[in-house]
Amino acid sequence: MGKVRGELLPQLAIRSVNPREPVEVLFVPKPWRLVGAGNYAAVVLHPEEPGKVVKVYAEGRPGLQEEIEVYRRLGRHPAFSECYGAGESFLVLRRLAGVTIYECLRKGIRIPETVIRDIDDALAYARRRGLRPHDVHGKNIMMMDGRGAVVDVSDFLKEEPCIMWSDFKKSYYALYKPLLLLGLTFPIPDGWLNMLRKGYRLIRRRES
């Protein structure tokens, strides 16, 4: 916590321009390293503590207290991170080391069905803990040694229903698994993936 407050926060520069897009990371002080960025926050790592990451919320972005509550309810589960501590704008979390499903699609990495089943089990566990899984999609799901994990739980207290995971599963079984059975996996360019992502959001907004 001392390194976070003394070294990281005074120099880290992030901003949120569009709440529907990832935050912009303008500067990360050395030796900290950027791990990823979501719509609310940036995630960074210190090389001396590779088992932990720090999630720093951009100024003006809500959800920190809600995320702390989500982790309190989740407790310990292999498919979720764990909150070790929190401050006024950040959380210290157990690091989930792997590759996101989005990156698997982008790089042509095989996604076994065990990942899908693990995510199903993890979301069922979260529901039993009184949570409502939300915003579960390719960039928020990770594969670690062939097993599935949920990277981002910040929206698990939202009231409105979310069918992103259901839609993803339908696509997996209807489109991806048949190719997998034929031994056909290939990288999908960023442009195509972004077009699919934006098209999906547009369709869902119109339907709602």
Automatic annotation (TrEMBL):
Keyword Translocase carried by entry: no
UniProt superkingdom: Bacteria
Record carries keyword Calcium: no
Entry keywords, A to Z: Kinase, Serine/threonine-protein kinase, Transferase
GO molecular-function term, one example from the UniProt record: protein serine/threonine kinase activity
InterPro entries attached to this UniProt entry: Kinase-like_dom_sf, Meiotic_Drive_Suppr_Kinase
Protein name according to UniProt: Serine/threonine protein kinase
Natural source organism: Paenibacillus ginsengarvi
